Every structure is written in C-alpha cells, then in structure tokens.
Amino acid sequence: MKYVFTTIVTILLFATCSSEVAKPSNPPLPESIEQLKALLANEPNDVTKLSIYYALYKAYNNASDIKAAYDYLALQRQLAIKIGDNLTAGKSCYNMGLIKKGELDYIKAIELYLEAIGHLEKIKDTPRIAVVLDNIGSVFVETGNYEYAKKFYQRTASIHNTTEDAENQLIANLNLGICHFAMSKPNYDSAKLYFESALSLTDALTDRKPYYLNRIYNQIGSMYYRAKHYPEAVDHYLKSLRCTGATHGEQQAIGYANIGEVYMEQGLYEEAGKWLNKAMTLSNEMEGSQRIAGLLNIFGRLYQQQGDHKKGVQYLEQAIEAADKDVINEHLQESLRLIRQSYTALRKADMPVSIEQYENILLLDARQDLLEEELVDKTNYKALQAALGLSVELDYEKKQKKAETLLNSLYSYTVITLFTLVIAAGVILFIAGRKIYRIRQVLKW
Q1: pLDDT tens for residues 81-133?
Q2: CB-based burial of residue 81 (10 Å sphere; 0-12 exposed, 13-18 middle, 19+ buried)?
Q3: Contacts from 99-104 at CB under 8 Å and sequence distance 24+?
C-alpha cells in the first residue's frame, strides 16, 4: 500500500504546487547564463538585480544544476530582505523550500516555508500563504504524518473556500480525502465526502479535467483498497485509467500497479502478475528510482504471499539498492520490514541467511529511525503553531513524541548490548525503540 499512497500523493502535490506562482514581474532578460551573469555584474539597480537572480535560478534549474539554482535564490532572498521587498523574499523562500522538498530535506524545507509565511504575512498575501501551507502539508504526507497534514489542508481549504477558484478548492478537498483514509484510524465516510466534493468541482474545470479525474478516481480506489472493498477498488482504478492517454505513462503505471495489488490481496496471483508486469514495463521507460523501489516492493510481497521468500528477497534487495538511504524514505522502510519477514521465514525453513545480511538491514533501519527523530527534534513546531493559529495541540504532540523517543532510546541501548554479546561483533546500532521487537526476533535465532 506504500506505493499507492506515497507515489500518487507525491505526484499530485508536486504537480499542483508549482513554483511558477513565485515568478516576479520582470522585464525581458536574456536566457543565456553567461549573458545574465555579465548583466548582473554591471547592474546598479537592486530591483533589477532581483529579476536577474530569478532568471539565473530558472536557467540553472532548467540545466539541472540545482545547487547553483538554490544559491541564486538565496542571493535573491538576501537582497529582497535588505531592501524590504517582502513579496520577493517570500517567493524566494518558497522556491528554495520546493528545492529542498524535492531533495527530501524536509527539515530545511519546512524552515524555508515558515520563513516564506513570515514575509507574506507582512503584506497579507493570503493566497500565497495558502500555497505555502499546502506544501507544508505535503511534507507531512510524504513522511506519513497524515494527522499533521490534515491540519494544514484544513487551513488551506478554509482560505480557498472564500474564493471562486475551483481548482484550488478541488485540490484542498482531494488532499483532505487522502488524509482521512490514510490515517492510522481511517475515517472512510469523511474521505468519501471530500472525494465526492472534489469530483463535483471538476465540472468547473476545462484544461486539466482528465488529469484531476484520474487522480481522484485513483484515490477513491486506494480508499476502497484499504477498506478491503476490492471490487470497488478495481472499478475506480479502471476509471482512473480511462482518464489517461497513451502519453501518460506514469499515470498508467500507477493504475496498473494499484490493480495488481488488489488482485494480489485476493490471492489472484497470476492476474496480479500480469498487471504488475505492465506497470514495470512502463516504469522502466521513465526516470525515478523511488517509483521503481515502490513497485519492486509489491513484487516482493507478491512472492512472499505465495511462500516463495527466496524470490521475494531478490526483488526486495533490488528495491533497497534503488532507494535513497540518506532521507526519510517510506519505500525503503517498507522494503526493510518485508525483507526481515522473508529472512525469518527462510531461516525457519533451514535456508541460509547470514548474520551480515540481517545486520545490514538493522543498520539501515536504525538510520531511518534517526532521520525521523531528527525531523521531530529540529522542526520548528512553535512556528507551525503560529502558521496554523494553534496554541497547544502541536506542541503537546511534539513533547509526547520526544518523550517516547527518549524512553525508547534506553530500551534500544540495552538491546544493542545484548545483541553485541550474542554475535560478538562489537556492532553499535543506533535504533529507535519502536522497532525493538524486530531486533528481538534476531535474538531468538
């Protein structure tokens, strides 16, 4: 289910939170990077410099030199703050946040989004504030914190409901629907109401109507999948596919994978394999290691459920290899969870799994825990509260999480000591307590 949730939500949010809203009003400028640099070197006017900085950001961004693009946005922000241009400063921070979110540096992204809100609040630019709040919500979605995300989407919905912008209203309803069924305690009735509202709003769209219909039907299908209403899930996934054309390979790959998962959960493995292979064929034609990692996880589960853990491990090891291991990564976390299950099953069947293999999985798992702890520890929750107009709730949740982290750390170090004595390897594992039971499974061998 991770592939369904994360991939679709991320694609939707990146598509709807375009950095184009942050483009300042500029006179025509050259497109060549060298010409722009020469122009900047001889430009005495600060306002014109702001425009040149933005043009250089766009030029380097188009050339896929993200570091240089980010650096010119930072220069634009610095100058905008110096001359008191709050609008441009807010736009700079927003675009810098987009870059950091794209790099999965969620802590820095939130920091920049909050700074953007601070600048935009000074000029009461409510529509742009709503866009930034929406992006903060997407950060929490991508890290699996749907309860937090819901708070931000509710705030953006309240802003968009005062306008006549059907597209933004649709996005707000769709995001809220996703949060309501993806939470640890799903509320399917509320999710359905939000999805129905989003569908009704597509009547007011022209250019992007098929795009949004595809997304809405996909999410309705995912809702029914999680509720184990499999026929309804397949029906809505097929509806989503009918809204795509032959050129929309990514959307089609998602639909195929989702249908494959539904058949897999029903034990129809041959049919599931057909749809998953179609998804893999399309995915191999596109860039995106995270998409491939998510799909490989599904293949791993497919063989696990059929009892072929050896084959499942092959796919899961490929998924781990493809995943970005230096960021909070739901696909990687799913891979690690699944491969531990297969390793345990193989050992019970007297099939060799070396301690080194399991040790590597535990170390990767520990790294993910530390990254999540860092997100909790370094996120500016007081600023988030201010952005949402809350006074207690988020701060209380943060304190609870931190208390759990500290308590679990004590257990973690104890388990690590025992593990070291058993394997006599001197391996130090920094792993959060919420996954201790997984290490204890190792100790039972």
Answers
A1: 999 999 999 999 999 999 999 888 888 999 999 999 999 999 999 999 999 99
A2: middle
A3: 99/66, 99/69, 99/70, 99/73, 100/70, 101/135, 101/138, 101/139, 101/142, 102/14, 102/66, 103/66, 103/327, 104/142, 104/324, 104/327, 104/328, 104/329
